[in-house]
Amino acid sequence: MRNDINEAHDAEEDIYSSGSDESKKRKVVVPGEVIVSGEDYLPGEGAKRLGENIISIRFGLAEELGRVIKVIPIFGAFVPRRNNVIIGRVTDITFYGWLLDIDSASSAFLPIEESPRFVNKNEMEQFLAIGDVVSAKIWSVKSKGIDLTLKGKGLGKLEGGFIFRVIPSRVPRVIGREGSMINLIKDKTGCQITVGQNGWIWIKGDNVDAEIKARKAIEFVTDKVHIEGLTDKVEKWFEENK
Amino acid sequence: MAKEKESSFKRSDGRKLNEMRPMIAKVGIIPNADGSAMFTFGNTIAIAAVYGPRKLHPQHMQNPQKAVLRCNYDLLSFSVSDRKKPGPSRRSQEISKVTEWALSPALDLNSFPNTVVDVQIYILQADAGTRTAGINAASLALAHAGIPMRDLICSVAVGKLDKNLVVDLTKEEEDFEEGEGATDFAMAKIANSDEFTLMQLDGKIQPEVINEVTKLATEACKQIYEVQKKALKDVVESNGGKK
Predict the structure, then answer these.
(1) Fewest CB atoms within 10 Å of the CB: A39, A194, A220, B204?
(2) Do A197 and A171 meet the contact criterion of CB atoms below 8 Å apart?
(3) For residues A50 and A72, what is the distance between their CA atoms, to the nearest angstrom?
(4) CATH superfamily membership of A85-158
């Protein structure tokens, strides 16, 4: 079995070296490794030009998008960006808003004005108490901290269900192209699922079995980082695990 | 004359002068860490765990321009034949600091201001070359943690036993006392470049042979780099990179 995988990998590299333009195959690269050489290419995220060559600066999967070479990290902590939808947990209530733990280097602040409806300053814990789980959008990222907002579709307090963590850099795979993967899992299990860019995933279903199945499906996706055509594989997985 | 010496000299474990001890590298050995790795040189075993980037306390240590790299190297008390008293010592503090300096030129920490990247290095079993094994493990763990870095760091010690240059000393060789005695020269290098990030000399060596020493180290680092590269790729191939 191991050999098969290695062979498949070698074949992938062959396509690369023969310079096929149409290949969108991904290749595992380590920092400092030459991904491609030649003046025709441009370094994207996670890559850098060094003389003739494009080298990787992350451990991840190298992808060729036209002339741009980009490296998607496989592991690593969450790096907040503006407009990311994240899931956080309330850790403190201040006079002006709520402090949230969003599993990043700095904690996030949700101002009282950014709640979707009027909240009385004396009764803030009735809207969000310490320990509540919220899905929110990152409004700004500054060196001093992160500001959040709850104004937007699908944002707000998450009641019931449970949350668990996946590696943040695998979240795009869980969501899939235009949400194809997550919609498939939602359809098959009938659960409500919210995926935060910080790797926290909230699941709520009609019964525990469906919830566990949804979690297993998501973990199935996050375990298979370097495999193409995952949506079909997940469909098959659901067939097998009825 | 040097040639003659080379052929007559025998290393105690029967290795060639430029032969390294068998190396093993493994990535993803600590599930709770953001990145982790193990690296061994023969009987020397080092493990490294990386946490972060995460918030740095106390606040006055924060750097508003980039993340701070903080290394902690230590021998575990059972790693040496005479029990090592646990806790930081003068030696371990020094090695923590030089490890930090050896690793930081390869890292790009500008995108994480006010944070810290913690690297914990522990030696499970010591048979000389612990700092070099520690640096190799730490470099793998940092890559595993997804920290942007321009290259991997490879580290090896070159020594001089009497008049012979040898690679990757064992404890027995470090205690060599015949002729000119033993020299231990620990070095770390950026894998795909000629830059050295660590050079620590313990003993005596003639300035003329330094060139020879760096050449030997470069050759050894190439082998280490292959082992490191394979370890990182295997973690994806073997279990999908599951933490």
Answers:
(1) A39
(2) yes
(3) 19
(4) Nucleic acid-binding proteins (2.40.50.140)
ipTM score: 0.85
**Cβ–Cβ < 8 Å for A113, A98:** no
Instruction: Delineate the domains of chain B, giving CATH numbers in brackets.
Output: 2-239 (3.30.230.70)
**pLDDT per position as a tens digit, B144-193:** 999 999 999 999 999 998 888 999 999 999 888 888 888 999 999 999 99
Region A162-240: CATH code: 3.30.1370.10
Q: For the domain with range A2-73, which CATH number is right: 2.40.240.50, 2.40.50.100, 3.40.50.970, 3.40.1390.20?
A: 2.40.50.100
The model carries a pTM of: 0.87
What's the residue count for chain A?
242
Q: Which of B115, B189, B192 would best serve as a mutation to test chain A binding (most A beta carbons within 10 A)?
A: B192
What does the pLDDT look like over A162-177, one tens digit per residue? 999 998 888 988 988 8
Q: Do B112 and A226 touch (CB under 8 A)?
A: no
Testing the interface with A: which of B70, B110, B136, B236 to mutate, by most A Cβ within 10 A?
B236
